[in-house]
Structure formats: C-alpha cells, structure tokens
Amino acid sequence: MKPFAQLKERFHRIKQRHLDPASLQFRLTLEVSLLSILGLSSVAVWTSWKMQQLLITTHTQQVEYIANRFPRDVELYSGMLPVNAGLQKTIDNVSVPGLAIWFKNTDGTMILAKSSQTTAKLMSLGDMPLEPQVYQVGDRYMILYSGDVKTARNQPLGKVYMAQDVTTEQYQLITAIQGLTAVCILATLATILAIAIRIRHSLQPLQEMSRMAGTISAADLNNARLQLGNAPTEVKELAQAFNIMLSGLGDAWEQQRQFIGNISHELRTPLTVVSGYLQSLLRRSNNLNDYQREALETAGAEADRTVRLLQDLLDLARADSGYTRYHLEPLLLNDVVSEVVDMNAKFGERSIQITATENVEAIVDRERLKQVLINLLDNAIKYSTAAQPIDLIVERDEKQAIIRVRDRGIGIPLQDRGRIFERFYRVDADRARTTGGYGLGLAIVKTLVEGMGGKIMVRSTVGEGSEFTIVFQQ
C-alpha cells in the first residue's frame, strides 16, 4: 500500500502543479489554447457558411434562370394559345427534375406542373420570398421563390411559385460540416496538447532554477551553478544573473563565516582570562562590601555567558566550514540517554523520565549526541516549570532509531515553529533574556544531528508543551 500511496501523492503534486491557475504554464497554455480554438472555430464557421452559400448559389442560379425565362415564355405561348393553355405549356417546358412549379391566376385558379405531398404543403403557405432562399419544409429542404407574371400589355396574370428540392445536397452539406467540426475538434485537442508540451519544455529551465533555489544551502553557494544548454536567450540571461547572484552570496557567506570564526576565536581567550581573574578575585578577597561583590559576580556571570556564546558561534563556524569531525560508531542509544540523564541528576533537580521498551542501536557520535540531548533538555527545562516532568523516549520504527524529548511547558506558537532552528531566532525575546538564551542552541542541535546523518522535527501545542523528535537510520 505504501508505494501506491507514494505514487498517488506524486500524481497529486504533478496535477496540482500543472493545473495551478496562478502558474505561468497554466496561463500560457490557456491563453494560447483559447486563441487556437478561436482561430480554428472561425475557420470552421467561415468554411461552413461558404459551403452553404455555394450550395444556395448553385441551385438558385437555375431557379433564377427559370424565373426570368417564365414571363417571356408565357407571353410567347399566350399569343398562340389560350392563356391557361399557354401557362400550362410554359410550365411543362421549364419543368426539370426536383423542381415544382405552380401558378395562381388573379382569380385564384391554380395550374400545376406536377403534384406531390410536399407541393401541397408549399401551396398552403401564404407568401413566399421574392428572392430564391433555402427553407426547411417538414423533413425536406427547398429553395423557394415567387414572382409576378404579366401580359404583353403589362396586365397582371397572377403569380408563379417555384420550389427546388435540395434535400440530398443539404444532407451532404450537413455531413460535411459535421466532419469538419470533428476534424476541428481533434485538431484543437492536438494543438492544445502540443502547446502544453512545448510550453512545459520551454519552462523547464525556470523550474530547474526553482528547484535549485529551494534545495541550495549556504554551504553550496560557491559550487552551485545553473547550466542551461538549449534554453532561450532570455532564460539564459536570467540563469547567468542567477549564477552571479549565487557567487556573490557565496562570497558574502564565506566572509561572514570567516569573520564569525575569527572573532569568536580571538575573543574567547581574553574573555576566558577575564572570567578566571574575576572568579579568583571573588574567592581571595575578603574585604569586599556587598555592592562590590555583587558587581564582580555579575561581571563574572556575563563573562561566562559571553564565553559560552563565543563557543557556540565557533562550533557553528567549524560546522559550516566542514572542520567538525564526527566519530561515528554503532552505539546503544539507551546507554547515551541514561548517561545524559545521570549527568542532569547531578547538577539539576528536574525530574526526567526515560521510556524505552527495547534496546535501540544507531550509528552516531557519542559526544555530539550527548551535546544534542543536553541542549534539548536545557531547552525543555527553561520553558517548563519545575513541577512538570520531562520525558525521554527511545524507540524503533522499522529501520529508524528514534529519540523523543517531550516537555509539558508553554509550547511554541504555530508561526514560530518553522524558524526555531534558525540562528539567533528566539520565540520570546523577553523570556530568552531572563533564561540566558541567544537562540543558538537549537541551531547547533540541528547542525549536529544532520552532521550525523539524522534529522530533527518538532511538534508543539501552545499551553501543552513541545516534542522534539530525532531520527537516525539504523
């Protein structure tokens, strides 16, 4: 089930990234696709309209020819035959297959060339167009026309009506339009797919920059460079600016690291000497008044506190420069945890409860792990009251060795949890001032844990306490 869950989660991330309405890829794909749909739709509509007009033009030309010829033939035959006989003779002469013609005299008398059910429906219509047009009559398509017929003396004889059956041609046109529509839809889908793939390929350099920016660490600034071979010129220029920025940041970070390391090293020795002289002065001077003794004790405490700060900074500088050495070996975590708890019992009064259902082994550095646990316990003691116990839990989960440090103190607000491992970051500056913290303890913990190949996480609820979890691979 776990591989399926991972695959499902990966598919969800890909789907979310590709369908994100705010992403550049989604917007470009949508906009270009809409333009493509608009263009293909316009072509399809224009082609359909043109085909319809061609059909109408082809058939209406014949109807128009007959309509123009009809009055002349009537006039010709009327001179030789009675009017009705001349009209019938004219209708018979101009009739062609698929064309229905009938004539209404001024007195309402109707003369037909041929009769059908469709013709009967047409004759029941009131007015018909003066120009040939296509109409649907029942399930048939007809080109309808009506015109006045006059004698040679310009006397009205009546109206002639014509109906050209173009049903077969209209169905062929509809089938052609449907095929054209299907082709346009397929072409549109293929175009959208091609556009999406092309845009995604074009944006890969930007995604690569995003991935690098998200994974790069301070230690990688001098070595991390973005290499783009086939990217567009604009993206290459952006990548070049990105690399220049990384180089500048790397130089600045290196200068800062060297400065911190040098200043920590240079200041630690004289401050240690000052602290030693202050302590010696307090032990050997018996003629100091209370004010002088309090001043010396305060100066000594601040000197010791500053020395510890400089030592922490020096440890971090060594870790950043890669000078920290780890003596990794298989150890029972239960023994290391017990040793740290025993040390705390000698110098502190807090109750620390160890919970371990089995012996758990991991490859770690004993002294570094002890430093990590001491810092975490010190943090738990600072931010919880004396009546609240602290739990140290050692357990195994599949192939992972886990140590949990749990307190029931004030907890960490949600907005601060993502930053507590940053250097000099303190959740409550006022409280940190009273507890003597500089915001380096958890930063050192994270650096040491990751240096031993592990990882550290935190869960916390305000008012209920915090739990720091250290995970090592066995």
TrEMBL record:
Q: Which reaction does it catalyse?
A: ATP + protein L-histidine = ADP + protein N-phospho-L-histidine
Show which residues constitute the signal peptide. Answer: none
List residues of the HAMP domain.
200-254
Superkingdom to which the source organism belongs: Bacteria
Question: Residues in domain Histidine kinase?
Answer: 262-474
* Gene3D superfamilies the record matches: 1.10.287.130, 6.10.340.10, Histidine kinase-like ATPase, C-terminal domain
The answer to keyword Transmembrane applying to this record is yes
Q: Which GO terms describe its cellular component?
A: membrane
What Gene Ontology molecular-function terms does this entry list? phosphorelay sensor kinase activity
Q: Which PANTHER family match?
A: HISTIDINE KINASE 1, TWO-COMPONENT HISTIDINE KINASE
The molecule here is called histidine kinase
Q: What organism is listed for this UniProt entry? A: Chamaesiphon minutus (strain ATCC 27169 / PCC 6605)
Q: Highest lineage ranks of the organism?
A: Bacteria, Bacillati, Cyanobacteriota, Cyanophyceae, Gomontiellales
